[in-house]
Amino acid sequence: MEAAGGGGAAAGGGGAAAGGIALHDFSGRLGEQRVHFHAMRLRDSLFLWVGAAPALASLAVAMCSPRDSVPVAASLLGDPSDTASACLARRLASKTKKQIFVSYNLQNTDSNFTLLIENRIKEEMMAFPEKF
User: What number of other Cβ atoms are within 10 A of residue 6's Cβ?
Assistant: First the structure.
């Protein structure tokens, strides 16, 4: 699993500055499939795109709630019966305590495969915490 293009970028003051936007792209071969990831760190949230080809078929958001130990999640775009984006957003919100937007654009939604996806993201978060 390799990181591709550490991309940093953008708004106001160089991207990594407080309040700026930080971009980070990476990819990896998970099982038989090459998977690409695009992370956009905003002030208090994170947008994460996961896919094999350019598409935005689903989008979900999750955030921690002071009233519940499990983050709340909602599907914003796509088929609401496809819970892959919402489930991944919920797990990442629980880990990061941030508002997380996830667009999961892979056909494979098997729980073992999505666990590989989640572990790859967590691995990248450990290696580049400033990007998340």
Answer: 12
| Pairwise CA distance, residues 88 & 96, whole Å | 12
For helices 84-96 and 111-127, what crossing angle results, to 10°? 30
pTM given for the model: 0.84
**Residue 76 to residue 72: CA distance in whole angstroms:** 13
Q: Is the dihedral of CA 88, 9, 6, 52 positive or negative?
A: positive
Whole-angstrom Cα distance, residue 68 to residue 52? 34
83/2: higher pLDDT: 83
Residues 6+ positions from 82 with CB-CB distance below 8 Å = 58, 75, 109
